[in-house]
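Lecture notes, unit on binding sites. The following record was shown on slide 14. It pairs a sequence with 2-OXO-4-methylpentanoic acid.
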Amino acid sequence: MDIKITQTNNPKAKPNEDDNLLFGTIFTDHMFIMDYDIDKGWHDARVIPYQPLSLDPATMVFHYGQEMFEGLKAYKTKDGRTLLFRPNKNAQRTNKTNKRLCIPEIEEEVFIDAIKTVIKQDEDWIPTKPGTSLYVRPFIIATDPFLGVRPSRTYKFMIILSPVGAYYPEGLNPVKIWVEDEYVRAVRGGLGEAKAGANYVASLKSQVEAKKEGYSQVLWLDGIERKYIEEVGAMNIFFKIGGKVITPALVGSILPGVTRDSVLTLCKEWNIPVEERKISIKEIYQEYLNGTLEEVFGTGTAAVISPVGELRWGDHIMNINNGEIGQLSHKLYDVITGIQLGEIEDKYNWTNEVK
Ligand code: COI
């Protein structure tokens, strides 16, 4: 693909090695942008200085939310290479999301080439301190200036880059999670398995209420019976019960996470029995009472592995592993970040070098 590059004349000051890189607050010097219209398809791919957009107030994305996004990370290895982690999975998921949201698809190669080209421009922005990386945020918005409800005929695909530390202020320390049994995030047949901004709007109200109670995230139950565990919104969820690892099956309302898939692959390699199935909150509580709920952890690109130290379901407070990080959570974090950083053998060909 031909990508035109315009470099900035005003490079910004980069964060210092010791700065706390609060997730999603700092952006690099350049961005990628490409347009779509019905006649030309995706066209005019370019890397430009990071800048605000100018859009007509009638632009469809502002009114009906036809928008998708992705998230992946780039890492700097000790020998100076830049590695992406499974970008093909994000490209494939983009197209599944696009189909659901009536957004035109983007070829996998074009998607990955765009990411690599913009990262190449801002390679110096990749932080190297342990626990940091360059978060890559591809996204697409509907841009027709039109107030009728139908799919837009024009779009913009953009990629912005942000040097980040841990997603949660807790870092690898266990987070406290609120089990939501009033509001729901998604239902089967809805948008739950798509990476649509709309899913995250749906989560805000209960996240705000959970925060007031001192919980950092919300664990969603299924939208119909409000019994079965789905996901956390910014993460998929795993339970280690009596030596087995259990995660909710992808039933249509759960995001198919790249880290989720990586964890399942590693557990199978390590001969840990894994089950992808329906699991109710009642079952989790019963296992907790039995003393067999050994570990709970979330998985996500931004969060990587996030141990859960407490689950609150109504009046029941489940204190997990004494609020400490579990052995398996720790091992998964070390191995996944080790592969991402090129320090552990990449048996599955998960990393993809930016050259
Ligand atoms: C990610 O992990 O990349 C996500 O998309 C979650 C996001 C809401 C921070």
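Take-home: The radius of gyration is 21 Å.
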